[in-house]
Amino acid sequence: IYLSTMIGAVEMVTKGCTACYDLMLEMPAPTADGLEAAAHAYGDVGMRSVIAPMVADKTLYEAIPGLIDALTPGLRKDVERLRLAPYQTSLNNIRMALQGWKLDSKLSRLAVAPTIPLHCSDIFIKGCAQLAREYSVGLHTHVSESKVQAIAGLKCYGKSLTAHLDDIGVLGPNFTVAHGVWLDDDDCRRLSDKGVSVAHNPGSNMRLGSGLADARGMLNWNLNVGIGTDGANCSDNQNMYEAMRIASMVSKVQGPDQREWLTTEEIVNAATEGSARALGWEGIGRIAPGYKADIVFLDLKNINWVPLNDPTNQLVHTEDGSSVRHVMIAGQMVVRDRVPVNIDMENLAKKAENARNRLAKVNRPGKKLFDRLERVVGSFCPALALTPHHINRYGANF
Question: Is the peptide bond before 28 cis (omega within 30 degrees of 0)?
Fold first, then answer.
């Protein structure tokens, strides 16, 4: 956990990202030690983080209607081994972590992340929301990321995932929706009314074939939109400049009316102030009096900035992270002349390679099982996604 978190943190700061929402996963339940290991990694790099244990009490095979029945008896028996901890265990472990948190809250804070509504019983989601309220921390979940989720939500609840979350009383200003690719107008209205934020991850949405989220529609509903990369297992890199550029391109391929395209100003605002609000972190996201000194210094001699024409346009459409020269977080230099100040990169690479070799051996049996499961899941879920699902967007059915 420490090594993988540090690798991600080093990549982010060297590519000009100063704060992140990390939905980390431990199986079968989160632990205080695991959460602290991640926080120590961010602290050692010098990066801000909101760490949210991603929790569930149902596996994929229990969450998607009909999927377990599509498995052979042998595979059904095998997936029993993937069973998660009872929801009480996860809630108790998160509570202990929240109560005992002794790390520097100026850099690392906790939040709560019931991973996907379908993967969590209602009593579990309500328990997560209660913990978030009790400790005044963020609440984060994946909502309508894929069409499979949207269809399964209608089958399970008779309404959209957003409507169900609204009905059970968990939406609020501390709530962040990840992705929201398949939100409709009613969903956006509900989220806007409750002051919810949306984490727009355009690169991951395409990488996983989830679709193109309507960020313009979200902004039209006065939703706060932040921009993210998603995890390295879903989008391969952690480059916010790439995420901004993709966000711009995605808005342009959804229709020919350029008045509906996101402007570069809107994208920069989403990646900075919008993302800061989604993190629930006050005093970051701007360079202004009274704000914390989180500043990325770009080298204007880099070819991305030659010649210097429109800084906002170049920030979104030409910058790729290669111009990042220095990074300051909380007034401290964490990257100087493109090198992480606090990290021995050669030592980190050696440790990571040793861990990779060890984990490859440990995970080999699991990989063989997932290779067998992939054939079933890879046919069942696309078939489920063929179910017509109306999205009140451009008058289309998908």
Answer: yes
Chain-centre distance for alpha carbon 211: 16
Instruction: State residue 397's pLDDT score.
Output: 39
Q: Tell me 394's DSSP state.
A: T
Please give the backbone phi and psi of residue 56, each rounded to the nearest 5 degrees, phi first. -155, 160
- pLDDT, position 394: 37
**CB distance 75 to 373 below 8 Å:** yes
Residue 212 CB neighbour total at 10 angstroms = 15
The answer to whether 188 and 213 have CB atoms below 8 angstroms apart is no
pLDDT the model gives residue 395:
34
The span from the CA of 77 to the CA of 72, in Å, is: 9
Exposure of 380 by Cβ count < 10 A (0-12 exposed, 13-18 middle, 19+ buried)?
A: middle
Residue 392, helix vs strand vs coil: coil
Q: Where do the H-state alpha helices sit in 306-344?
A: 311-317
**What's phi and psi for 301, nearest 5 deg?**
-85, -10
According to DSSP H, which parts of 194-324 are helical? 202-207, 215-220, 232-235, 240-252, 264-269, 275-279, 311-317
> Strand, helix or coil at 15?
coil
- Contact between 208 and 148 under an 8 Å Cβ cutoff? The reply is no
The token pair at 360 is: 């490859």
Beta carbons of 250 and 201 less than 8 angstroms apart: no
Query: If the chain, 398 residues long, is cut into consecutive pieces of 10 residues, what is the mean pLDDT of each piece?
Result: 97 98 95 96 97 96 94 94 93 96 90 97 98 97 96 95 97 97 97 98 96 97 97 92 98 94 98 97 96 98 97 97 98 98 96 95 94 94 84 43
* 11, 72 contact by CB (below 8 A): no
Q: Give me the phi and psi of 142, to 5 degrees please.
A: -85, 125
Burial of 394 (0-12, 13-18, 19+ CB in 10 A): exposed
Residue 146: left if φ>0, alpha if ψ -120 to 50, beta else—which one? beta
Nearest Cα neighbor of 326 from 15, 11, 10, 9 is 15
Which residues have C-beta within 8 Å of that of residue 12, sequence separation ≥ 6?
A: 20, 47, 238, 240
